[in-house]
């Protein structure tokens, strides 16, 4: 058997970074930026008002007070988006709206709440220093400044920032297109009736959702029967659209483990036993240059295998660090046991209280028991050389996507 780290290292050494694409800004949400984006002009590009109020010369209202307001003639209105060039002289004021360009000669903005709101003449009851409520050109971003760096995943704030500097398109590493397929004669689509010995297909749905959580685009392929010709045809069809293929089932030692039968000796796909629980039977390789991950059929084994092996690979394909799931150190609430020589991933309930993480292992840990996975929020990682851990021990815990 090979170790978890050996199997992951082979995977990461085989997958390549996806070539960049030029995409419209909203279409690029969730992708990884392949180029730094810089501001061509300062932001804001001009001095503007931070409030609805009056643009003034600060010296004109230096003596203003509630008991002795200063009255100034109002010579005009300046609104946001005004493209005209305006100016005021000392002793005058102009009404100004939030975001409107400051008129030449003015050096402060008085909010309307400090005035009587006059139209022809306004009475101002409070003084203000120069620069008051003015947003200066370039105070947010300087011209030439990098506003979003290469390697950033584009979420809402990053997309807003790129739009703010005038870019409508960007070069990005696209989300990997991942085809997920489950095999098995016993599988039936959810919503259809079951016969004796049949079960509803769940792994394909679970792993397709996991692809999306990992930043990819998931395509669930209809269930394929355990017939070598049909399985091979499926692979040939899906290679046209897939950046990666994930299968579940058919990789162990059974007489109808069709994935193993079809892919053995095909491309660079090889099958191994990995020193882990759950998820010992694993396969990986390139088929016509496309990464193929063959995961076990038991649902918990498939899910844990995805998080340990597939998720880091999908990140690497986007040019990101192949980081594992976020890890925290936690205190065990109860004793646990682990098989010798295997890295054990136990479903757990992780909580945080008074500055400390505490984790409790689920009561059932069978690789077929999806119910305990659906209620877990973490995976407790027990190293290969440890067989027992008493309550109170420190353990590494992976936080599952929520």
Topology:
Layout: H1 4-14, E1 21-24, E2 32-33, E3 37-38, E4 48-49, E5 53-56, E6 70-78, E7 93-96, E8 108-111, E9 121-124, E10 134-135, E11 146-148, H2 156-164, E12 169-173, E13 177-183, E14 187-188, E15 199-200, H3 203-213, E16 217-224, H4 228-238, E17 244-248, H5 258-263, E18 270-273, E19 276-277, E20 281-287, E21 290-295, H6 299-317, E22 327-332, E23 336-337, E24 343-353, E25 356-361, H7 370-374, E26 378-382, E27 388-389, E28 394-399
Parallel strand pairs: 6-7, 13-16, 13-17, 14-15, 17-21, 19-24, 22-25
Antiparallel strand pairs: 1-12, 2-12, 3-11, 4-10, 5-7, 5-8, 6-9, 18-20, 20-21, 22-28, 23-27, 24-25, 24-26, 26-28
Brief digest:
Helices cover 18% and strands 31% of the residues.
Model description:
The protein is of the alpha/beta class. Helices cover 18% and strands 31% of the residues. It has helices at residues 4-14, 156-164, 203-213, 228-238, 258-263, 299-317, 370-374, and strands at 21-24, 32-33, 37-38, 48-49, 53-56, 70-78, 93-96, 108-111, 121-124, 134-135, 146-148, 169-173, 177-183, 187-188, 199-200, 217-224, 244-248, 270-273, 276-277, 281-287, 290-295, 327-332, 336-337, 343-353, 356-361, 378-382, 388-389, 394-399. Strand 24 and strand 25 form a beta hairpin. Helix 1 (4-14) packs across helix 6 (299-317) and helix 3 (203-213) runs parallel beside helix 6. It is elongated. 37% of the residues are buried. The model has no long low-confidence stretch (mean pLDDT 95).
């Amino acid at each position: 058997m090979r170790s978890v780290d050996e199997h992951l290292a082979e995977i990461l050494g085989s997958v390549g970074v996806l070539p960049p694409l030029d995409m419209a800004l909203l279409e690029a949400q969730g992708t990884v930026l392949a180029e730094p984006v810089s501001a061509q002009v300062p932001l804001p590009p001009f001095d503007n008002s931070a409030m609805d109020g009056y643009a003034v010369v600060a010296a004109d209202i230096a003596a203003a007070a509630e008991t002795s307001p200063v009255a100034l003639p109002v010579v005009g209105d300046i609104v946001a988006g005004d493209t005209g060039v305006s100016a005021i002289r000392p002793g005058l004021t102009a009404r100004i709206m939030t975001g409107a360009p400051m008129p030449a000669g003015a050096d402060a903005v008085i909010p309307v709440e400090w005035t009587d709101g006059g139209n022809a003449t306004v009475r101002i009851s409070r003084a203000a220093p120069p620069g008051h409520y003015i947003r200066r050109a370039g105070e947010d971003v300087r011209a030439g400044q990098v506003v979003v760096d290469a390697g950033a995943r584009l979420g809402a704030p990053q997309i807003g920032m790129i739009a703010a500097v005038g870019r409508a398109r960007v070069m990005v590493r696209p989300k990997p297109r991942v085809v997920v397929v489950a095999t098995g004669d016993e599988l039936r689509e959810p919503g259809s009736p079951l016969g004796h010995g049949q079960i509803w297909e769940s792994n394909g749905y679970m792993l397709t959702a996991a692809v999306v959580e990992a930043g990819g685009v998931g395509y669930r392929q209809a269930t394929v029967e355990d017939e070598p010709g049909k399985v091979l045809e499926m692979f040939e069809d899906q290679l046209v659209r897939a950046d990666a293929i994930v299968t579940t089932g058919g990789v162990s030692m059974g007489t109808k483990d069709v994935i193993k039968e079809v892919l053995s000796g095909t491309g660079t796909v090889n099958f191994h036993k990995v020193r882990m629980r759950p998820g010992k039977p694993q396969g990986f390789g390139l088929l016509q240059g496309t990464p193929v991950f063959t995961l076990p059929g038991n649902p918990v084994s498939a899910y844990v295998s995805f998080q340990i092996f597939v998720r880091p690979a999908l990140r690497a394909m986007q040019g990101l660090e192949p980081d594992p799931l976020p890890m925290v150190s936690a205190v065990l609430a109860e004793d646990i046991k682990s098989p010798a020589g295997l890295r054990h991933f136990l479903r757990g309930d992780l909580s945080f209280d008074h500055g400390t993480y505490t984790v409790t292992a689920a009561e059932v840990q069978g690789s077929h028991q999806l119910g305990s996975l659906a209620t877990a929020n973490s995976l407790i990682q027990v190293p290969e050389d440890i067989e027992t851990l008493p309550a109170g021990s420190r353990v590494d815990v992976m936080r599952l996507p929520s």
